[in-house]
Amino acid sequence: MIQNENQKETSPRRKKLQKIGVFTSGGDAPGMNAAIRAVTRAAIANKLKVVGIRRGYQGMIEGDFIPLKSNDVSGILQTGGTMLKTARSAEFRTPEGREKAYQQLKKAEIDAVVVIGGDGSFTGALVLSQEYDISFVGIPGTIDNDLYGTDYTIGYDTALNTVVEAVDKIKDTARSHGRIFFVEVMGREAGLLALTSGIACGAEVILIPESNEQHSELQKFLKKGYRKKETSGIIMVAEGDEAGGAIKIAEQVRREHPDLDVRVSILGHIQRGGSPTAKDRVNATKMGVAAVEALLDDQQSIMIGLNNEKIVHVPFNKAVKMNHAIDINLLEIQKLLNI
Ligand code: F6P
């Protein structure tokens, strides 16, 4: 049973749904291929034709389309990246670019589209569907897990496990040398990945954009904790932290505490790659099927979400405008245990 965040957003469809498009957009995320596979096969099972739109909105503008049959999505469930490729398109931000994109969709007789991506991708879909007669349903795909209305976005679980594996290794060398490591993880505007990986790795301090109180925790750790314990330390830093990235924060710490042995490790795009975890594959599959069902049910401008493991429909305007609240209690837990 699907729960709706809002009342169902429907409009009378002029033409019976026959052909759908599917594409990935924005930063890639492990599990996007599993979602493409689920969308393609669920659509074919429902007698729909499927077109893969390559390179995100840029490919839509250029008509870079490929027909997708069941065999075309075989062997991709376990692979990272996106077989359809992705892009961030500046041209699509212009009315001329969007008109070209719409004309290409019409020329290819695509009736509705599944967009797999994050907030920028859904904002683009919302704008195009407001300007032209084309329906979109979204599947959240971003390692940031920052969309309102869904507990999970595709790729987050894999990225979390990648970060944890990397930090476990960094801890080995940090302990051997008695060093403090500032580990920067992705999350331009969202600290969830830093927060949960910090908890999973037993980080001494976690710096995230959603809370600036942690900087005093860092000072406490540097003044007392580190010396008291005479050991190493891991400071997790979300790239969007207001004090700047790990390099900037570490430089300041070096200036203030020249006696400390400080190193920086920026995990970077390693977090976006790799074979998706079982959880990301299952979630991507569930959401892919649900996206096709939503289109068959004449829904539009909604994102498929997962709430307590159940599929929910979240209007695009809510998913992109409201924040995915992070569990600040996790910071309290981290402080409590960090004695
Ligand atoms: O939106 C996902 C994300 O991975 C952010 O966490 C990160 O800031 C950004 O993408 C990096 O994007 P790009 O690969 O385009 O530099």
In words, what does this structure look like?
- The structure is a single chain.
- This protein has 339 residues and is α/β, with parallel strands linked by helices.
- It folds into two domains: 3-155 and 276-321, Rossmann fold (3-Layer(aba) Sandwich); 156-272, Phosphofructokinase domain (Rossmann fold).
- Helices cover 41% and strands 18% of the residues.
- Helix 1 packs parallel to helix 9 (278-296), helix 2 (56-62) packs across helix 3 (95-107) and helix 6 (192-201) packs parallel to helix 11 (329-337).
- It is elongated, with a radius of gyration of 22 Å.
- 6-O-phosphono-beta-D-fructofuranose binds at residues 27, 118, 142-144, 186-188, 239, 272.
Task: Please summarize what this structure is.
This protein has helices at 32-45, 56-62, 95-107, 119-131, 156-177, 192-201, 214-229, 246-256, 278-296, 316-321, 329-337; strands at residues 3-4, 19-24, 49-53, 65-68, 112-117, 135-140, 180-185, 205-207, 233-238, 262-266, 302-307, 310-315.
Q: What is the class of the largest domain in the CATH system?
A: Alpha Beta
Q: How many DSSP E strands?
A: 12
Which compounds are bound in this model?
Answer: 6-O-phosphono-beta-D-fructofuranose
The H/E string reads EEHEHEHEHEHEHEHEHEHEEHH
Strand order of the largest sheet: 1-12-11-6-5-2-3-4
- How large is the count of helical segments? 11
Helix content: 40-55%
Task: Summarize the helices and strands and which ones pair or pack.
Elements lengths: L2 E2 L14 E6 L7 H14 L3 E5 L2 H7 L2 E4 L26 H13 L4 E6 L1 H13 L3 E6 L15 H22 L2 E6 L6 H10 L3 E3 L6 H16 L3 E6 L7 H11 L5 E5 L11 H19 L5 E6 L2 E6 H6 L7 H9 L2
Parallel strand pairs: 1-12, 2-3, 2-5, 5-6, 6-11, 7-9, 7-10, 8-9
Antiparallel strand pairs: 3-4, 11-12
Helix pairs in contact: 1-9, 2-3, 5-6, 6-11
The structure holds 6-O-phosphono-beta-D-fructofuranose (F6P).
The site of 6-O-phosphono-beta-D-fructofuranose (F6P) has 10 residues, from loops.
